[in-house]
Amino acid sequence: MKRVEDVLRIFCGVRQHIPAKLLLVGDGPDRSRMEKLARDLDCQRDIRFLGKLEAVEEVLSVSDLFLMPSENESFGLAALEAMACEVPVISTNAGGIPELNVHNVTGMLSNIGDVEDMVKNALYVLEDDNLPRFKAAARARAEEFAVSNIVPLYEQCYERAAVLAESH
């Protein structure tokens, strides 16, 4: 579950402290429910529902923070894309996300559903003294996952598996 409701609640919590805009990318059956929740939370004026986009990097390039409160993520490719655009990540500590998003380095991790903690973490990352450090670390972490770094690891794994298979 992506927990889009949590995204709206986190944003509205952040917006109570600092001026902010939320750009929601993607479309689906929950959109009308999310638009209603935005109105109910009285933060709809600062939310843009962008729908499905081909060039997500254009949105990421103007973003200061990426929210990923997912309940289960095997890896977090969307977070990696954000980090590659120097966007720190506020995420849950679920699934494979902590392997990518390093707490207090590339962003912050919180327990699933802990909107209050995610708001606190988002405000911390967005502080003028902190944001440049988080942006640089996010980009550096994303570079660790470049094809030129990852493919040799897969090749080594397959070679070890082949040697093991031959020995049995």
Task: Describe, in plain words, how this protein is organized in 3D.
The chain is mainly alpha-helical and 168 residues long. The chain has one domain: Rossmann fold, CATH 3.40.50. Helices cover 51% and strands 12% of the residues. It has a 3-stranded parallel sheet with strand order 3-4-5. Strands 1-2 form a two-stranded parallel ribbon. The longest helix is centred in the last third of the chain and has 21 residues, at 147-167. The chain is elongated. The mean pLDDT is 92.
- CATH topology title: Rossmann fold
Q: Which strands sit side by side, in order, in the main sheet? A: 3-4-5
Work out the helix count: 8
CATH superfamily: Glycogen Phosphorylase B
Order of helices and strands: HEHEHEHEHEHHH
Task: List the main descriptive attributes of the protein structure presented here.
mainly alpha, 168 residues, Rossmann fold, 8 helices, elongated
Task: Compose a concise summary of this entry.
The protein is mainly α and 168 residues long.
What is the topological layout?
Layout: H1 4-15, E1 22-25, H2 31-40, E2 47-51, H3 56-60, E3 66-68, H4 77-84, E4 89-92, H5 97-100, E5 107-110, H6 115-126, H7 131-143, H8 147-167
Parallel strand pairs: 1-2, 3-4, 4-5
Helix pairs in contact: 1-6, 4-7
